[in-house]
Automatic annotation (TrEMBL):
GO terms for biological process: cilium assembly; protein localization to ciliary transition zone; smoothened signaling pathway. It holds the Pfam family TCTN_DUF1619. Part of the tectonic-like complex (also named B9 complex). Keywords: Cilium biogenesis/degradation, Glycoprotein, Signal. It comes from Canis lupus dingo (dingo). Residues 110-223 form the Tectonic-1-3 N-terminal domain. This is Tectonic family member 2. Belongs to the tectonic family. InterPro entries: TCTN1-3 (IPR040354), TCTN1-3_dom (IPR011677), TCTN1-3_N (IPR057724). Residues 239-387, 398-584 form the Tectonic-1-3 domain. One of its GO terms (cellular component) is MKS complex.
Amino acid sequence: MTGPAASASLVGRTEDVTVSLALLQDKEGLLPVPACGVLTNETGEWSLTVTPSVNALDVTVRMKRGLQRCFSETDSFSESPCIVQTLLVSASRNSSCLAHLLIRVEIYANSSLAHNASENVTVIPSQVYQPLGPCPCNLTANACDVRCCCDQECSSDLTELFREACFTGVFGGDVNPQFDQLCSVQEPYRTPGWFPFLCVQSSLANSPFLGYFYDGSVSSRQHIAFEVHLHTDYRDFSDFGYKQGDPVMTLDKAYLTIPQVSLAGQCMQDAPVAFLQNFDVLCATNLEVYQEQDDIINVKIKNGAVGGIVQPKVIYEEAADPDKFITSTEILFSNESTSRNVNVEEHYIFRWNNNTISEINVKIIRAEINAHQKGIMTQRFTVKFLSYNSDNEEEFSGNPGYQLGKPVRALNTNKMNNVTTLYLWQSAGRGLCTSATFKPILFGENALSGCLLEVGIHENCTRLRENAVELLDSLIQATHVAMRGNSDYNDPSDGWLEIIRVDAPDTVVDPSAGANGSCMDIPTQLHIRILISDAGAVEGITQQEILGVQTRFSSVNWQFHCGLTCEDKADLLPVSASVQFIKIPAQVPRPLSRFQINFTEYDCNRNEVCWPQLLYPLTRYYQGEPYSQCVAKGLLLVSFFILAAFLSNPWTRTCRA
């Protein structure tokens, strides 16, 4: 007991139970054996209060005079307790002792009662040099925790009571466990032969676990409730120019964010805009929780040069048909007929020049709705990066080589409007081909898409083949593809390659085919193979170009699938298309050497010690700095060793002889 009051409960049958309090006198540090006798509730400076409850008695022992004698305005404070007493609480029935409780009172002087509170902030040690919590079992402030032998607030007398039952492990204060690299902890049968040469002679205070479990600020900060901080560590390299994929930064050193769709299909409101990466997304928002974003016209964006900014130019338009953006419309009638504006479409066009942004044009389409309208609103957000000298919105896919993720440029010489691209399906709803939309093939990204074609049990096989071929050909409405990302559409000789088409095999018409719900050799798969290669570098950036494009069909034998009975209903035939980018020359796996095959104990993937990487900075696997610099530094280091060897004593004596 370290305060002026203590409480306990007596549980069980409490009828005719008498609770009493007595002050015991201990001699030479030995407590007398407790005994139940005729005791009084008023014992010197202490009083006893008993409160009945359900099947229990709540007992409270309290000091009556307070703690005035424990401090003085002139006397200095001692480390020894000012009150040391032993109290006995007894419970008896008909002079028969039922239970007793010994209370050891040790009350220390409290300096805050007589002196002004110190304004010194508690100094939290750096976790890099010593553990943040050296005694995790010390849970109670200014009190001794039982079984916590590392608690500095426990006196030696109290610690002797539970010395044999102390908490073990990290919770008990062993926050610096022995690590495997110490020379003294290795067991003989587990120690490798080279261990005595590489083991560490160190004290446990210098432990590799320091700072391992907690790496952060040494002092806590007060945060407002429900406050969430995103992007706390902003990486701002925009003053030295943007690179593809870098986040666009504002003057306030924050990310420029526009809602985008994540891989899980959720709409992320605070997604940063990446330089030279276009997107066109749809986001579904509940009108009840819709909040207007900050006006883009007030945002100042860093253009990529030191001190340079660009101000967006915003144009507002009214939506012609707001109902097509809002579904499940419901209006809550109220006395106030107020309205509000919502953004249904936002289109951003960034003009770029080399690694800077020269201009930003924004078109926002707004709709006026009732302030109490409920429903789901579909918003569209588009971002497009155009070159500063581009007259229209037709943008290059690279300059001169292709950029990863840009559409493959294509040309159809059989049409007047010959600008096109290669497509894949983007299924929606039930996945039927009749409702599927198209998405462009992006350079360097292998993909697979498909849809479902409805086929009846009495389907004509010839017509089915024609429909399947026509459906697959709709993805490749082009005759040529651009070799480079900036090939001119108006000049067919400016690096345009003709698409090599392998037509579907002709099939002999079988009069009986289709009668039993089966057809042979139905083209259902379209394979698009695109050969690419490295064509040099511009300012250290590798440029890639297309060497050729080939399309090929694969056929399957179709059979109508019947359930319990063959009903005259449509069956679903899967149709798919795949695109594969093949780099020339092909990157074949590096064959294993005879050393790697015979000596598996030196395999870096199977063992902790990797001898082949002893000279790792001089190998091609090291990507920390250019290979030429690594070789130069390595040769310089070798020259130092040779010079030191020639200047050593044995060589000097040889030269003198």
